[in-house]
Amino acid sequence: MLAELLPQQAFALLLIFVRLGTALMLLPGFGESYISPRVRLLLALTLTVVIQPVLPPVLPALPDNPTALLLLIFGEAFIGFFLGSVGRLMMAALSIGGMMIATVTGLANALTNDPTAAQQGSIAGSFLTMLALLIILVLDLHHVLLRGLIESYTIFVPGQPLLVGDISQMITRVVSKAFLLGFQLASPFVAVALIFNLGLGLLSRLMPQMQVFFIAIPLQIVIGLGILLIALPAMIGWFITGFEDVMLPFAGLR
Question: What tens digit of pLDDT does each residue of 144-155 get?
Answer without folding.
Answer: 888 888 888 888
